[in-house]
Design goal:
The protein has about 400 residues and is mainly beta. About 10% of the residues lie in helices and about 45% in strands.
């Protein structure tokens, strides 16, 4: 395991972080920092860092920095659009901010603040999520109000003030058809993203089964919903079938209650960040733990964690230890060029074996040969060694 902690020269403490997908498998990270840390003061900051997959580290200095106004308060949560050009940031003094990422790493990056009328005075929003195809934006408030909007025109699809007591977490399905939400009272609901229709309330095993976090599977073949739950003192992950919304089972993947949850972009791995600073990563197919980092953020609750879009790397944040980039100890996967190279080698090996077998087939079968009978020789390059005399013997026209 390799862990890298980014430079935090600014006085603000880290609130959350997220990856930004860029073209050609380039990845940046955006880190949100609050205004105060241990008595010192500075404006709330939004920093964008570059990521080096070779060293598994973020750049020592940000590519771009944007300071929030004092009237906005501290950043609370961030959600990045799948296209990588926009992100939304909720603030502690109410409302959300929309930002555009202009330029590039070579020409210089600028963070431009845009208008976001439907959410400017919406109150404190605890969580936000873009749909997988980028066509929807959902935000959930501490007041329990759920909003679903079309993107980018921001027309309101749903504004339900009493969706929950207070919304804790949310996630869109891979096909962007469903939205799952959880509440601080342990309940979870399913909504149809297209029109905001409430479809179901998830099953719980008694009042002691509290659903905390939710993430949909993303591999395209297993239509499941994972919910981190607390069954008394035991943290588990419940698995639901999204065709019926019935619980299929549960699995214990962490020692203590989870504070954040993520599923890799290809859907192969699921990760849990704990309130004790641990992270655990399990393979979705087997639900067995493949990577475990004990006390990665020693004594601190992990505020956010997210898989890198193109690497087996995890970005985690906490208020005390800031942002960390961790290389995961999971089995290495075959790259596309390696698969084609293997197939080409197997093809060449089969051709050589076929030629060797043909040349030695008579000795293998021990078949008798006639007095003047000779075996024609075959060339791999297409020219035949059969003589003209042999053709004339059979009255063949040449």
């Amino acid at each position: 395991m390799e862990t890298e902690e980014a430079s935090r020269g600014e006085s603000g403490y880290v609130v959350c972080g997220s990856w930004i997908r860029r073209p050609k498998k380039v990845n940046w990270a955006i880190i949100a920092k609050a205004a105060k840390r241990r008595g010192s003061s500075s404006p709330p900051l939004l920093n964008i860092y570059s990521f080096d997959p070779i060293t598994t580290s973020l750049s020592s200095s940000p590519l771009s920095t944007h300071a929030l106004n004092e009237s906005d308060g501290d950043p609370v949560a961030i959600s990045v659009h799948p296209g990588g050009d926009y992100f939304v940031c909720s603030t502690s003094k109410g409302g959300c901010k929309l930002f555009e990422i202009a330029g590039g790493a070579t020409t210089g990056i600028t963070i431009l603040e845009k208008e976001l009328p439907p959410l400017q005075n919406a109150g404190l929003q605890k969580c936000m999520a873009f749909s997988f195809d980028g066509s929807k934006l959902a935000v959930g408030g501490v007041d329990g109000c759920l909003r679903i909007m079309d993107w980018p025109n921001l027309s309101v699809i749903l504004e339900e003030p009493k969706a929950h007591k207070s919304i804790r977490d949310m996630d869109f399905s891979l096909d962007s058809e469903f939205l799952a939400t959880t509440s601080i009272d342990g309940s979870a609901r399913i909504w149809k993203a297209e029109d905001g229709f409430p479809l179901s309330t998830l099953e719980r095993s008694g009042v002691c089964d509290n659903l905390i976090l939710c993430r949909f599977s993303k591999d395209g073949t297993k239509p499941f919903l994972f919910c981190a739950a607390q069954r008394g003192d035991v943290p588990v992950v419940n698995v639901y079938d999204i065709s019926t919304w019935k619980k299929l089972g549960f699995k214990k993947l962490s020692r203590k209650s989870a504070s954040t949850m993520a599923v890799s972009l290809d859907g192969k791995y699921i990760a849990l960040g704990g309130k004790d600073g641990d992270i655990s990563i399990a393979e979705v197919k087997t639900m067995e733990i493949y990577h475990y980092s004990k006390r990665l953020h020693l004594g601190q609750t992990i505020a956010s964690l997210e898989f890198c879009p193109s690497e087996r790397v995890m970005l985690t944040t906490s208020s005390e230890w800031g942002e960390m980039v961790t290389k995961l100890t999971v089995p290495k996967e075959w790259k596309e060029w390696q698969i084609y190279a293997l197939l080409f080698c197997l093809f060449l090996a089969s051709v050589v074996l076929a030629y060797v077998f043909f040349e030695n087939s008579d000795s293998f079968w021990k078949l008798p040969m006639g007095k003047d009978q000779r075996r024609p020789k075959i060339s791999l390059f297409g020219d035949s060694s059969t003589s003209t005399k042999d053709h004339n013997r059979w009255n063949l026209d040449l």
